[in-house]
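so im writing up the methods section and need the IS5 family transposase record in one place, dumping it here so i stop losing it
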Amino acid sequence: MSHPRDDRQDDLFRPSLEKIINLRHPLVRLAAEIDWDFLAGRFSSVCRLGPGQPPLPTRLVAGLFILKHMHNLSDETLCDRWVENPYFQYFCGEVVFRHDLPFDRSSLTRWRQRLGEEQIAALLQESLSVAHRTGAIETKDLERVVVDTTVQEKAIAHPSDARLMHRAIEKLVDLAKRESVELRQSYLRVAKRAAIMVGRYTHAHQFKRARRELKFLRTRLGRIIRDVRRKIEGDPALEDRFGPLLDLAHRVRHQEQRQRGPKVYSLHAPEVECIGKGKARAPYEFGCKVSIATPATAPKGGQFVLHAKALHGNPYDGHTLGPVIADLEKFTGVAARRIHGDKGYRGHNYPDRFKVWISGQVRRVTKAIRREMRRRAAVEPVIGHLKDDHRMRRNHLKGRDGDRINAVLAAAGYNFSLLRRWLAELLRGLLWILCRHLSQPHLA
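--- predicted struct ---
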């Protein structure tokens, strides 16, 4: 059984962080409000102590995830900022200032894969608990919710048939070289030129020539696929190694521009879906759909995100309402009394249809409900902040698990940024009241 390192002797002559930093800083106050034991209990459930190097402290891991999505930082930038910023170190549980990283950058990737969406959702749950304890949000704000969906785009290039087929040729040839499979011909030079000419001919509206170059690419890709299959036939190890890439290349070769059903839009992220939300500036977005729930009221601390979940398969918005509200009520422990959605939720599958109000609805609308319906649009700027300020604009995490994890972390980072601002405003309010009290003359 491994034990954590005891390096307190090295810190004996170093000044503590509490003597260096401002203890009234919002990050310090936020660290004092978070229940780190709750997060440690959730995160430690996936840790198995045994021989070898002990795991990182759970407070360090949770603090890094919060800081990363609060400040919209990449893993590399987060590591650089952590070494330079004493407030980051204090927030993550350090006692003295450290001049080196106690972890490797790849540790963040491994912890995300180890925890998964279910355990990382504890960060979002704790953000709502802190908001409730500090008065930023009340129980009545959890009973009236607004639900909407958006698209979380994947970090892929814009898909085109020429690009996909050229990329499939490159990957097959590269894998064949690494596995010492000698191909009859690689076609790398002529395939690159054909992919370039497709773009040029299409830009010049010379579509017959573009189709000819595209047919050339498709023919060469088919030759490489057949050549690889002949060379690896009868070798189970090579068949397993080439199998997934050959299947993707086969789908890319045979798919057409306007075909219905699932298509391959990226070879390194085959789970990507094409979603059209009716936007003039972006008719199609490539990623996955994400459901966002916020209060229909105006909480004191701001429009917190109550629930965030990535939804794969490009489902109809109305068919996601039932599972999302059930998950939200389980998550917050408060039953939803009123649910507001846009016209995309018509024909929803929520069991109690009298709790759901769609924008533009006339029946059963009272003055109080009409006021809440006017606030339905408040979810739109929340989605904008999640995308632009908290890393949901372009998801760089791998696979469908990465889609689900990034959506939850973006919501948690947004909530903690609101909490940081709320605690700073509370502190300014208390200081203003104290200064005003001291400035008033005391009566004898």
